[in-house]
Amino acid sequence: MDFAASLNLVAPEIILSVTALVLLLAAAWLGDRSSRVLSYLAIAALAVCAVLVAPAVCGGFTGPDAIAFGGQLKVDAFAAFSKLLIYAAAGAVLIVSPAYFERLGAMRAEYPVLIVLAVVGMSIMVSASDLLALYVGLELNSLAAYVLAAFLRTDGRSAEAGLKYFVLGALASGILLFGMSLTYGFTGTTGFEGIRTAVSGGLSMGALFGLIFVLAGLAFKISAVPFHMWTPDVYEGAPTPVTAFFASAPKVAALALTMRVALDAFGTQAVAWQQIVIFAALASIVFGAFGAIGQSNIKRLLAYSSINNVGFLLIGLAAGTQQGASAMLVYLVIYVAMTVGGFVAVLMMKDADGNPLEAISDLSGLSRTRPVIALCLAAVMFSLAGIPPLFGFWGKFVVFQAAVDAGMVALAAIGIAASVIGAFYYLKIVKIMYFDEPADTVKGTSDWAHWALLIVAALFVSPLGYLLTKCLGSLADKAAAALFFAA
């Protein structure tokens, strides 16, 4: 494939990179007063990129024509599916961010620039078919994320979150790099196709250690146990819109990248990594469920909820099949909707002066003081718990079904039993909103964008979401098929 064709395949990344540079110049010239306009321009760029990648998903684009820059990137239907989710999550965050930061007097023109640069990194991550491209994309995303976590420069919690994220992220990056060097040393290549060929006859001890270290580095990015330690503190300390961003878009990118590494590069040696993934899945489900029970801060609770949901997603990866990959993608779509809905509801928790409220006790009796917010948040909580007929149940169902069909009945059974534990703290939130005496602290008003996103998310996770199962399943199947094309 010639250079021009490769450039055509990465047109969305080029558009976003140019957008980030233009927005950076505009931010320097116009100052912070332009931040809202720059956010809208960033959203427009994301929308254009979504239009560009959508045909690849619908058409199941894959094969040699999807390979760019000599095998560095694979811009197939799987990558396009993941990019659509990333663009949607980033766009939603950009919509609700200005009101939050302006209320605190902390909106900066560089905020949308950082979001766009992070999205460029995530786009490279989900398309990476070489360890070098993987690392470039991951670090571009991470460097922007470190700054975003510490974006509230006058807030000690935000600065602490940024520092913790940076230090632990550097450690994870070192672990990942060590695994990549071992993989290269024992396979003789950094390309996923070459690695797959090199290990098809069996994994040497060195290559096995390389795989373990690579998966450990990626486990940090997806907040999987035992590399989850940064998640509750960073989620609580970072500004709420940034926390919503961390819990959605980067999570999609990191999970998609993990799927590509495991199923593409090491797909012929699934037995070598399945035990690791199974342990991480079950540990994340159990630890996320128990860790959330005693929380008094809603953002920390959602952090443990994120760890818990990663566990369910990894059950689909543990299956090691195309059906499992498709189930993961379906779950990811529903998870992003639930996450965005949950954090938008948190953003709408404000006192009469517009100050953000994060204590779970502030939700007491919310159904009587702010019934619409309470109803939408209850729908999100029931959906996160996987209680039918909410759409979140379907996400868990397809993942468990994939595990059963792959012969992992015990894994599915343990996952189902552990999901009951998680239901406790989700139902606790609903109980506080509907049965406790009103705290009457949530009095602040929200703009139409918050209401629109909250209602759309609530409708998506409601039983109406089942109307999309056929379409969503078909797109996920096409994306998963592209991931297994070379297998």
From TrEMBL:
Record-level Gene Ontology MF annotations: NADH dehydrogenase (quinone) (non-electrogenic) activity; NADH dehydrogenase (ubiquinone) activity; quinone binding
Residue span(s) of domain NADH:quinone oxidoreductase/Mrp antiporter transmembrane: 128-422
Enzyme Commission number: 7.1.1.-
TM region positions: 6-30, 37-57, 77-97, 109-126, 132-153, 165-186, 198-220, 241-263, 275-294, 301-319, 325-347, 372-394, 406-427, 448-468
Catalysed transformations (reactions): a quinone + NADH + 5 H(+)(in) = a quinol + NAD(+) + 4 H(+)(out)
Source organism superkingdom: Bacteria
Oligomer and partners: NDH-1 is composed of 14 different subunits. Subunits NuoA, H, J, K, L, M, N constitute the membrane sector of the complex.
HAMAP family: NDH1_NuoN_1
Primary role: NDH-1 shuttles electrons from NADH, via FMN and iron-sulfur (Fe-S) centers, to quinones in the respiratory chain. The immediate electron acceptor for the enzyme in this species is believed to be ubiquinone. Couples the redox reaction to proton translocation (for every two electrons transferred, four hydrogen ions are translocated across the cytoplasmic membrane), and thus conserves the redox energy in a proton gradient.
Name recorded for this polypeptide: NADH-quinone oxidoreductase subunit N
Source organism of the structure: Caenibius tardaugens NBRC 16725
